[in-house]
Design brief:
247 residues; mainly alpha; 83% helix
Length: 247
């Protein structure tokens, strides 16, 4: 019995070392994973910029529309609000993967720049969620704050920039941080349209070695490590904001 377990452990370890070597060591394949993770982080950052710009724009338009006084409705603002509402409803109501497939194989089917297509798809998707997060934060600030700003002679833009947004930011930071982490993980979906991020390289290694377990586990660990770091940074920023409130 002891000999059986000894042979089993020996065989298991030899098999483990062989598959690990093929997945990460042979041909310096570990460099592919690092290259892919670099692309993933770049894709996340670019998509986040698009998402935040779109989200802020839509959130401000919809908040301004909702805060109009009765009898003083602006027609143009109403049209823009309707467009923003359709945008958030459609994007949040359809799967990310389906949206990426439409961007990659329908709208930009002739484009060879899969990174750009994936960045655009991720950014537009993230913008809908960011818009609702920011809109919730803006609507959560007491209406008296806006009236106080206007009583001091500030216009709408200055009131939002100096009074409303700073207060709303502290309330929406946890949700924005979570959206950033979700966006980072969702970058794995762009491999479906041929973008060369970390999962794309893991699948390429698996197709060469006919062994997918180690490449996929390696990628999962890389995602986990980055998410832990991002979560820690988010928590540190939240603590600093809480400390500034106490002073």
């Amino acid at each position: 019995m002891e000999q059986f377990w000894a042979d089993f452990v020996k065989k298991f370890w030899a098999d483990f070392v062989k598959k690990f070597t093929m997945a990460f060591i042979t041909g310096d394949r570990w460099k592919l994973y690092l290259k892919g993770m670099g692309t993933t982080l770049e894709l996340t950052a670019c998509a986040l910029i698009i998402g935040v710009v779109l989200g802020v724009l839509v959130a401000v338009i919809r908040s301004a529309h909702d805060q109009q006084r009765p009898g003083q409705r602006n027609f143009l603002l109403g049209v823009l609000n309707a467009v923003g509402k359709v945008y958030t409803t459609v994007i949040r109501g359809t799967p990310m993967l389906v949206q990426l497939l439409i961007w990659g194989f329908v709208i930009f089917k002739t484009s060879r720049n899969r990174f750009l297509v994936g960045m655009l798809g991720l950014g537009i998707n993230s913008g809908a969620y960011v818009a609702e997060i920011i809109r919730g934060g803006l609507m959560g600030v007491d209406i008296g704050q806006s009236e106080a700003g206007r009583s001091l002679g500030m216009n709408y833009i200055d009131t939002m920039r100096f009074i409303i947004i700073p207060q709303a930011f502290k309330n929406i930071l946890p949700a924005l941080g979570n959206e950033f982490i979700v966006l980072f993980k969702d970058t794995s979906l762009v491999s479906a349209i041929g973008a060369a991020e970390v999962l794309y390289y893991a699948e390429a290694v698996g197709s060469k070695t006919y062994e997918y377990m180690f490449p996929y586990i390696g990628v999962a660990i890389m995602y986990l490590v980055v998410c832990i770091i991002l979560t820690a940074l988010q928590g540190k920023l939240e603590r600093r904001l809480r400390q500034s409130d106490r002073r």
